[in-house]
Design a protein that fits this description.
This protein is of the alpha+beta class and about 450 residues long. About 45% of the residues lie in helices and about 15% in strands. It folds into 2 domains: about 210 residues, set domain protein methyltransferase, domain 1 (Alpha-Beta Complex), CATH 3.90.1410; about 130 residues, no CATH class. It has 18 helices and 16 strands. The strands form 5 sheets. It has a 5-stranded mixed sheet with strand order 1-3-4-13-9. The longest helix is centred in the middle third of the chain and has 26 residues. The termini are far apart. One of its GO terms (molecular function) is protein-lysine N-methyltransferase activity.
Length: about 450
């Protein structure tokens, strides 16, 4: 009995369980090894109480150790799409001139999501079948909240969801139109057409959104002269990739790491019309940690310094005590407030504000007003003051931003924002709790904390 109790206490203390012996993960690890992936032998997959599935180290890892090293051909990147002849034919052998009609109309992330649906529609015939099978079935981003809850969450969160929805629905319409007009010259394309739905596309979009890593391939491919390729559809860059196993390592803002593209000296910069898998057989992608990790702790990497609004809407998790969180204020709403309190901006003031970018990055964080917010209020109060150089006054505010007149002037609007958030939180308390909603509530409570601190200062 005593031994059993000690084991239970030990298990509770660790707060994780390893899952490398699960059938699907055994297949995944075998597939990764077969395809030439090399990852640190100290690492195993585990499920943690606080973060879900992640990566555990069984022995101490020291700064400078490589975590994972995989061949470029085992990442889904821009070359994967360009070298997939059948996928490219969907666009190139079409009843409509889609390369011209939809030139610069979609993001690369959207095109990657479209490609992911294409791969998944092939079932176990696909090279990536085992990897795709181990991807999450659902994602914990607010995008997937019921509409009645979305109506109650804070405007900041809702605004991001609306932008995501517009991107997803607009690109879905484009791809759906392209698929409907493609020439079905194979069973693969037929299956692709029958499997392409908004639901499947949303899953694919957030798979790319939550799991991709930064990968710059300009050292190995020449992305010029793309007019006759599928890349002419995109309106941004191609520097993202899906990397099996690496995408299972969770995020921590305290982690530091470095990625490297390891290129054989004989590999030159290849034009996109000369791509083939053999060229990249000696190109590998590697990630090193700059942290130390004790035995039987979770290994983390950093996705970049991100505030919680981005973390919950893009990745689906919330970090407590995130000091870089802030509450944004829309310039148009500030302008309405100024009109209400009799401080209407003149055309000269509006021009000055626009020319100096003071209508952007208007927020309050735990330290107080942002530089631009403070500068905007200075224009409101001191633009027409005699013997005042408004530009010099604003840029001296970087070291002296405690003008009580300005702070008291804006407090009523801040209090109104606070009241609105608290009212939304009250409405949300009527809904059944879930992980996604809890993240939104946590962020809104952080907003309350920030605004209350500002008002009390």
């Amino acid at each position: 009995m005593g031994r059993t109790q000690r084991k239970r206490r030990h298990k509770n203390l660790l707060k994780f369980y390893t899952c490398n012996n699960e059938k699907d993960l055994i297949l995944l690890n075998s597939w990764l090894a077969k395809e030439g992936v090399r990852y640190n032998k100290k690492l195993v997959l585990a499920v943690f109480n606080d973060t879900g599935r992640g990566v555990l180290t069984k022995k101490k890892i020291t700064a400078g150790e490589e975590l994972i090293n995989l061949p470029l051909n085992l990442t889904i990147n821009v070359t994967s799409l360009l070298m997939d002849v059948v996928f490219c034919r969907v666009f190139l052998e079409n009843k409509i001139p889609c390369l011209h009609k939809y030139n610069c109309k979609v993001t690369f992330q959207s095109l990657m999501a479209f490609y992911l649906v294409y791969l998944k529609s092939q079932g176990n015939e696909c090279k990536w079948y085992i990897y795709l099978k181990n991807l999450p079935k659902i994602y914990t981003v607010p995008y997937f909240l019921p509409n009645e809850i979305k109506k109650c969450i804070d405007d900041e969160i809702h605004s991001v969801i609306v932008k995501q929805k517009n991107i997803i629905e607009n690109s879905f319409y484009i791809f759906d139109e392209i698929l409907k007009n493609t020439i079905p010259n194979s069973d693969i394309v037929q299956n692709f057409r029958s499997n392409f739905s908004l639901c499947n596309y949303e899953w694919a979009y957030f798979t790319v959104n939550t799991r991709c890593v930064y990968m710059d391939l300009t050292k190995v491919i020449d992305l010029k002269n793309i007019e006759s390729s599928i890349l002419c559809l995109i309106n941004d860059n191609t520097k993202i990739s899906l990397c099996p196993y690496l995408d299972m390592i969770n995020h921590s803002p305290n982690s530091r790491n470095e990625t490297k593209l390891l290129v054989n000296k004989e590999v030159g910069i290849t034009p996109i019309n000369n791509l083939n898998e053999k060229i990249f057989s000696d190109v590998r992608f590697s990630i090193y940690t700059k942290n130390n990790f004790d035995p039987y702790t979770q290994v983390f990497i950093c996705y970049g310094d991100s505030h919680n609004l981005k973390l919950i809407t893009e990745y689906g998790f919330y970090l407590p005590s995130n000091d870089i969180d802030f509450v944004s204020f829309n310039f148009d709403k500030i302008n309405i407030y100024l009109n209400m309190v009799g401080s209407k901006l003149s055309n000269d003031q509006l021009a000055f504000i626009s020319n100096h970018g003071l209508n952007k990055e208007l927020y309050i964080d735990l330290r107080g007003l942002s530089f631009n917010f403070y500068g905007l209020l200075m224009v409101v109060k001191y633009y027409y003051s005699q013997n005042v150089d408004i530009s010099r006054l604003i840029y001296s505010a970087a070291v002296c931003s405690d003008d009580r007149v300005l702070i008291e002037f804006i407090k009523p609007m801040v209090k109104e924002r606070l009241v609105n958030i608290q009212a939304s939180l009250s409405k949300l308390s009527n809904f059944s709790k879930c992980f996604i909603l809890d993240n939104c509530i946590n962020l809104m409570c952080q907003y309350v904390k920030i605004l209350e601190k500002f008002i009390k200062c």
